[in-house]
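[Meeting: bench + compute handoff]

Bench side (C.D.) handed over the final construct sequence. Compute side (W.E.) agreed to return the predicted structure before the next meeting so the bench team could plan truncations. Sequence as handed over:
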Amino acid sequence: MIYKLKNIVQEIKTGFSFRTKIIHDPEGNVAIIQFKDMTNNYKNIGEIDTWLKRKEFKSDHFLQKEDILFIAKGINNHAIVFDKEYAAIASSVFFVIVVDKAKVLPGYLAWYMNQKPFQSEINSLRSGSSTLNINKKTLEEMSVVVPDMETQNIIVNIGHLAIREHKILTLLSEKRNQIVEQKLLTKIKQS
């Protein structure tokens, strides 16, 4: 079935808007997730290097496991499922999507939002003169194809395997390049 995004989520909220520059606190216990923390073509959360103290935030600012972070600014509008064990706040570059799990799996929704049909529609709807962005109302009205739960589960599992395969192939390529480089350097030294 096809649904508007707003009909399969509990809430779409904007990430936390910092009024000043974010400065890492070495004693911080809350991760601040920013655009620069995205890896694997903006589909994973990498190492977090900015932490702040918990007391600076209200409880509704904290990410919950399986919330979806959607990059709302710029041209890389990808969705990421938050699956970390640490306390975290998303910066305002993200929309935080709280999924209605009775209707759609978070992993499926994030996967679907990263696919060409959804991304093409996003590309045609971006606005802004200097920094392109997607506004909340536009995102809420986007169409999402939602199959039955069993099919969603299969897609999520295959999606995880594809990401894992990509990581392994990348590591393999890097190792091969290191071996070739080392062999060539050894050959030069022997000449």
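W.E. noted at the follow-up: The helical segments are 106-113, 116-125, 136-140, 149-190. C.D. will use this when planning the next construct.
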